[in-house]
Amino acid sequence: MKKFYQDLLASHNLHKPLAVNKEESFESESLKKEKILQQVPILGEWEQVGRGNFVKDSSLIHLKSPARFETYPADWPQDGDYTSFGMIGAKRTFINENWETFNQLKLVVTSHCKNIINPAITVSFTNDGKIKVPDKYDREGHHVINLENKQTREYRLDISNLSRDAISKLEITFNANGSYMDLPADWDIVVEKIFLETNQENSNVKGWQILKNDLSYSHIGYPKESTKTVIAHSELVGEKFLLIDEKNSEVIYKGQFQKFDKTVGTYAVADFSDYKIKGQYFLQVGDLKTKIFKIDDYENLLKTSLWKSLNFVFCERCGCPVSGIHGTCHQDVFAEFNDRKIIFNGGWHDAGDLSQQLVQSAEVTLGIFELAAKVKKSDPVLHARLLEEGEWGLDFIFKTRLGNGYRVTSAGVSRWTDNQIGSMDDARARVHNSPYDNFLITGILAKIYLALSAEADLREKIASILEIDYEDALTEFEKAPFKHEPISWEHTYSTSKSTYLATMIWTAALLYQITDKFDYQLFVEQKLEDLLDCQENEGISLFDGSLLKGMFYRDEEKKVFQHFNHQAREHLYAYALAEAQKIVTDKSLSVKLLAAISNYGDYLKYLMNFTAPYPMIASGIYEKNEWQDKESFDKQHLLVGPEAKIEFQEQLVAGEQIAANYYIKRFPVWFSFRGNNAIVLSMAESAAILGKILADKSLTEIAYQQMEWLIGKNPFGQSMMFGEGHQFPEMYTVSSGEIVGEMPVGVQTFENEDAPYWPQFNNATYKEVWVGLAGKWFTLVSKLLEEEEYEKVIG
């Protein structure tokens, strides 16, 4: 903790990035533990692939290239959408070699790059055996290594779960993607000493079962009034555990690992929930022990994660120099509208690439301001820094507003451009008049308005456009209700009618609270009836004799349940119900509304049964014939072929059948886009909101437990926030390099299975860092702090 605050002070409260410390990363820890049983060098002729220069040498691979070319490769998109200036690399071919006796690849790399932002290489495998690599979505078999420039380093890659019975090709490549401020720049990479190795120490990369020599626990600690458990392999059932005070090494609690046998396996679980004294502790069983964790209140448990997440957001700023990463950027990403050109830099880069999404930046802005309101009294320094970053986001929202409902919405960029409009590397941003996006962004601005203090100057600025933008959205909506722009790259593309309704209700309810105008209240009550028609109210009869209700469908026809499999806005249902409850005056509607809230809460609690003892909430209920609804299927699943409908059915039966034709999926049905962190955080928001309304502590607990899942309490014992907790893996951060506080898209599944899959390989999408997750983290913490403050007030 002391070291963290020293780093924070050195960053001048995040006016330059926090220092990246990799000592506790998964990669560093793995190198310390390894026991090599055999090592075989990869020898033979390497061939050049792509552009640049390949310096032939029998003992090493030497790759050189300029940072940019004046053309895109002939077979790449010539508009530059999501492209670099070209790939440079080398390949080594094999005659279907079997590498199954080896479980890791090791290589030594030297980087001598000049003015390159984050020198990195990609290691790619091709397997022509029983399971093909790469897979049909080109996700499997690629791993990016962020290099230490001007240094020689040894890098290790765990290939234990890679299909490698018939390896036919190994490639080492990088992409020329521009330079720092378009200064003269060169790539110069030397790869040598490439080995296949057999490591006696195994990694856990797939499935629910934990390794025998590991303990799964919450690295961020446990709220003092909540459930506190540590998960271990079933061999420890019956063993005694000790809870030890870190300060004086005193044993302050003793217990016994109990057998836990549920749908995801048999485990030993240590439960010390009845111990509620604040402090720092570790748990020990025999020679096995956790690292130090806290028992405390929410703010003290989560404070460092807030600073680190904010660091990640700051480092993703677009258009603003970030010391040590990039200079002013993307001044030549622009939109054209009514004979005008609008520069589209600002906000924050979307992910591991450099694309930009207005909605994503707007949602992050909301999270920042909501959190700022909750820490204003307890931490004025964090509060001030949040307001500063929030204003950067608001500036972008205002800047991209073109009037009459039009906004600049997104741009696909994966290169550092030269900042000069008119050159070949310019990127075009998209412009839309999307009523859905306008309702959502207006709601975001209204919520920010309410989160600001009454004297804040920003309130007047926001208030000046709220009703105008709402009317623009309503006008366009009434022309073609529930239609959406047919652009699949927009982050709201998969929006269903029920999510649309929830968004409109939320926004109108907020505007009523701000303006006290009756029309907004009337609109909420009218649309609320429609939204509740999209919810399961009667109940589905389950095999266990109970009725399951509360979940939402995509529309009132109730053919397809609402699912999120990448983008996730489950929280909008809770947002709508919570804000509507504040203003609905019709008594019969109020009764229906409270029942809807209660049923929805019960549904979220039900989902927790399918992943216990792990705290990850299951993704939801599916009906077996949903794949036959072409319109919704095509909206939900991008970049898929006709085989996806067959795979849908295979993924479904891998879940848990709960009734005739109905299944619970622990992970979503998904294809090219995989990773569930946004999904669990979005559902956590819903749980936190409903928990407060219903005074149901178990829902609040579910909300916090999703954060436990992300920060260590998972089968792999890894934290998914870089620099927070322990065993955090290096991620797909190819554009900007590793950043303290970054979070990836999330745990995926292997092929059509319904179990967690988390290899060291860090390709997109599952291990691609995603700025939107920080916004969800901020919002979720704000809900938990609000609940904690409320509990203190009522005693």
Automatic annotation (TrEMBL):
Tagged with keyword rRNA processing: no
Recorded superkingdom: Bacteria
Residues in Cellulase Ig-like domain copies: 220-288
Listed GO MF terms: cellulase activity
InterPro entries for this protein: 6-hairpin_glycosidase_sf, 6hp_glycosidase-like_sf, Cellulase_Ig-like, Glyco_hydro_9, Ig-like_fold, Ig_E-set
Record key words, sorted: Carbohydrate metabolism, Polysaccharide degradation
Pfam family, one: CelD_N
Domain Glycoside hydrolase family positions: 306-730
Coiled-coil region: none
A single BP term in Gene Ontology: polysaccharide catabolic process
Gene3D superfamilies: 1.50.10.10, Immunoglobulins (2.60.40.10)
Homology family: Belongs to the glycosyl hydrolase 9 (cellulase E) family.
Protein name (Swiss-Prot/TrEMBL): Endoglucanase
